[in-house]
Amino acid sequence: MLSNLHFDEQTLSQRLMNHRREFHRYPEAAWREFFTTSRIASHLENLGYSLHFSDEIILRSSIMGRDEVLVAQAQERAISWGADITYLAHMDGITGVGAVLDTGRPGPVIALRFDIDAVEVMESEEDAHRPRFLGFASLAPGVAHACGHDAHASIGLGIAEVLAQNKDQLNGKIKLLFQPAEEGCRAGKAIAESGWLDDVDYFFAAHIGMNVPSGTLVCDPQHFLCSSKFDLHFTGKPAHAGIEPNAGQNALAAACTAVSQMLAIPRHRDGMTRINIGQMHAGDGRNVIPASAVLLGETRGENRALNSYMFQQVENIAEAAAMMHGVKVKLCAQGEAIGLENDLELVELLESVGPESGFTDVLREKDFGASEDAGYLVDRVQSRGGKAIYCLVGSDLTAGHHNGDFDIDESRMLPAVKLLLNAVNALQQPLLRAESASEPSITSN
Ligand SMILES: [Zn+2]
User: Fold this and answer.
1) Which residues bind Mn(2+) (predicted)?
2) Which one of 66, 192, 226, 236 has the minimum C-beta count within 10 Å?
């Protein structure tokens, strides 16, 4: 299928590795990807893409789980690392970049999404950890590319390069979305609601690893969990605990009431649900009626209705507990994931181009069992008549995702690039697809 797209595999492989190792050295957590975005934007602009930043690709009012103090610090650090201040100005505080290649010829609008954020985990300092002994370990203590999004960003740049070099062979429009804040499911909703993907006919996203070995492609992962992450802020009134406790409004008591009731939410007959309150911070001193309390929690459900059921109960309990203790409560959404269902047409397309892209084992289904921010993007595209898919690109790993010892098999980036290029090519050139079914496929040199 790549027969009409020309590129040098060895050069591209080397470039993918170089990109990945640079992103790995400069990891940035959710909403703080200023250096990463700047580097990506610079490559894309050199390749001739038109770039879209900030409010063009993200609806600010739907942003979740963002700490402005940490964001400001990250911006300073990005400058010290050498981020281009022109791009920082375009970002206007919001990371991520969208790139468009418009061929000027009629054809579909195809979007590819690559997440770019790192994880808040300390990278291994063991000598046997490859990024360490090869000299590309994280330069940011406590943050590491421990989910493979450094590879995703690199795959995106690899695809961008081949598409740009072969623009004359392409039709329609290609949109590349380098997404911030996938961890914690904090950006998908805001990107979807910006409308930037509303003209998309076909949407692709992929994740490397995820317990899928090198050489294997999973075209249609199953069972994405819906989840809502939230903070609850209870605000009461302080008072002297001995002289006039009656004058206080006890926020800690309200938070405790809320926790015990939330953990007692009746389970739903229709399927799996979860709730966890993972942190509570409250009070000021032993002899002061506590005027503030914060709870950090999350609900999950095996589908949207079940997660909504859990979250609705949380809202009711928070209001009722606040009322009981005469305090105020404010719920702040920190992240949200909805389910994800692939379109069969694209599942079958990936199955057909998987083998020629370098996958020795092409599976249709595998249990996913986690949450993924792409759900909102997939849903947005599908709700407007487009088709969408999220697949898993296998890679042997040195440790599980979000673990400090995590490292990928870098050789698996090239097959991911070829897979998505083959898929784009097939959708753009349906005739070529039919004709070349029996021909040798790859003509890269
Ligand atoms: Zn991930």
Assistant:
1) 147, 149, 183, 207, 402
2) 66
